[in-house]
Amino acid sequence: MSKFACTCGNVISDVQCPNEVTGLLLSDKSLEAFSNAMTDTIRDYFQLAFSGQIDTWRDKHFNKAYPNDLSPADMIDDVLSSKLFELTLRVMECDVCGRLWVQEKPDVNFYHGYHPDDAADARR
Ligand SMILES: [Zn+2]
Fold first, then answer.
1. Helices (H), 17-107
2. Count of domains in the chain?
3. Residue 37 exposure: Cα atoms within 13 Å on the Cβ side
4. Which residues, chain by chain, have CB under 5 Å from ion ligand 1?
5. Residues 52-103 pLDDT 10s
6. How much distance in Å is there from the Cα of 117 to the middle of ligand 1?
């Protein structure tokens, strides 16, 4: 996503990254799942690395098109970033009316809008 039309008429843009108007929503349940994924991914990487089986780890997480010249940090980051986006909802805040737009489900391009009761205190 790069631009989103708020019902107030403002256009929310995440073209500039990072920015102050978009983010991620992670439930407690998803946070626990992500935390477990971090621990499992890193532990699994080091166990296989110490036994000389990095290719086994790579095959578990990536297809054959994945570059084979990336650092361990970059590979682990790719695995964990993918997991994070599987578990989180995208959130946008209109910087004019303060409405929050929350993604319905991960990988679904539909957002529910929530308008603040105290509209006079909208962000700007
Ligand atoms: Zn708005």
1. 28-50, 54-61, 72-87
2. 1
3. 19
4. 6, 8, 10, 94, 96-97, 99
5. 999 999 999 999 999 989 999 999 999 999 999 999 999 999 999 999 999 9
6. 13
CA of 66 to the centre of ligand 1 (A): 40
For residues 96 and 84, give the distance between their C-alpha atoms in angstroms, rounded to a whole number. Answer: 29
- Ligand 1: distance of its center to the CA of 30 in Å? 28
State both tokens at 11: 């256009």
For tokens 């980051």, name the residue.
77
Domain boundaries, position 111: 3-121
What proportions of the chain, in percent to the nearest 5, are helix, strand and coil?
40, 20, 40
